Known about the structure:
The structure is a homodimer. The first copy, chain A, is mainly alpha-helical.
Amino acid sequence: MTGPGTVRPGGRTARTREAVREATLAELAEHGYQGLTVDNVAARSGVHKTTVYRRWGSAEGLVADALELAAAEPWPVPDTGSAEGDLRALARLVQSGFADAEQGPVAAAFVAAAVQNPGAAKALHTFFARRHEDAAAVVDRAVERGELPAGTDSAEVVRAAVAPLYYRLFITGERIDEAVADRAGSAAFAAARAGAFTR
Amino acid sequence: MTGPGTVRPGGRTARTREAVREATLAELAEHGYQGLTVDNVAARSGVHKTTVYRRWGSAEGLVADALELAAAEPWPVPDTGSAEGDLRALARLVQSGFADAEQGPVAAAFVAAAVQNPGAAKALHTFFARRHEDAAAVVDRAVERGELPAGTDSAEVVRAAVAPLYYRLFITGERIDEAVADRAGSAAFAAARAGAFTR
C-alpha cells in the first residue's frame, strides 16, 4: 500500500491507481489470478469498492492496468560489452525474476491470467512487445560492433534467448536455474552469429 | 465417440475409456478447459455420469487421462536425413498441430489446464518428458553422423527448436507460421553445431 511518505506526482487519482495496483500485485502474489477479486483488492488498498468497480470493472481490468504500469517501468537492459554477455544477462533477468519470492508469483499469475482471459492476454502481449523493443538494443549494439551479422532480426534473437525459460516454466514444468539461463543466452548468441536470424 | 466398428482390444473398460477420452477432447476443442465438466463429458460419451465421476472424479482427472493416452500414442519423429531438416520438421509438427482446427484448440486447452491446475500440469509435464525422449533420436542420429558435436544434450536441442513457438503462442501472443517454425529449427541446429548444447 502507498504510505503517507510516497505521494506521487499526479495527485489523488495517481495515488489511488498506485494503491490499487500494489494491492493487485500483493493479491496476485498470495492467491494467484484465480483468487483475484475486486472486493479483496478494494479492501487491501483502502480504496472504496465502488471506486474500484467503476474504474477497473473486474479482475481482468485490474490485471491489465497492473501490466500497463509494469510495461512503463524502466528496467535494466543489459550492457556488458559483449552480445553473448548481454543475452545471458537478459535470460538471467527472466530467471531471477521468476525465482524472486515477490516478483515470481506475480509474473506467473500474469501468464495464468493471459491463458484464461483475452483482456489480460492483450495486456501481456503489449507488455512483451515493449520489452522486446527495449531489449533489441542489445542486438543492435552487437551488429554495430560487428559481433553479429548485419540484418539480424533483433527481436528474434531476444525471443530465442528467453523462450527456453518460459517453455520450461509454463509448458514442460521443468525447473530453471542460472545454468539454464546462461545456456539459453549463449545458444541465442551462437545461432545469431551463425546467421540464423538474418532477415 | 467410439463407433461400433472401432472396438478396441481390452474390451468394455477400454471402450469406455476411449469414449470418455474422445468426448473430453471434443469438449475441450469446443469449450476449452474452463468449460469442461464431468456432466457434459458423460452426456457426450454416452457413459453413465456416475461411472465417469467414479473413475475420473473431475475435469482435472479427465484432462490427465486424455494426456496420458496422448503421450502413449505413436508420433512421426522426423527422419529427413539431416539434423537441420529434422529440427525444422519437429518445429513444423508443433506449428501444424496448433494450426489444425481440431488438434489446435485441444492442445491449447491442455496448456491452459496445466496453468490452472496442478494435476493437469503434472500430466502435461509427463507428456512433454516423453516427447523430448522420443525426439532426442533426431539429435542422437546427427551426432552419430558427425553433424553435431559429441556430447550434445539432445533434449536441450529439442527444447530450443520448439520453445520459440510456445513462447509466441502462450506468452507473447504472437502468431506462428511455417517460416517461424523453420527459423526456430534452423537456429537450434546452428546453436547445436556451434557447441552451445554440449554437456
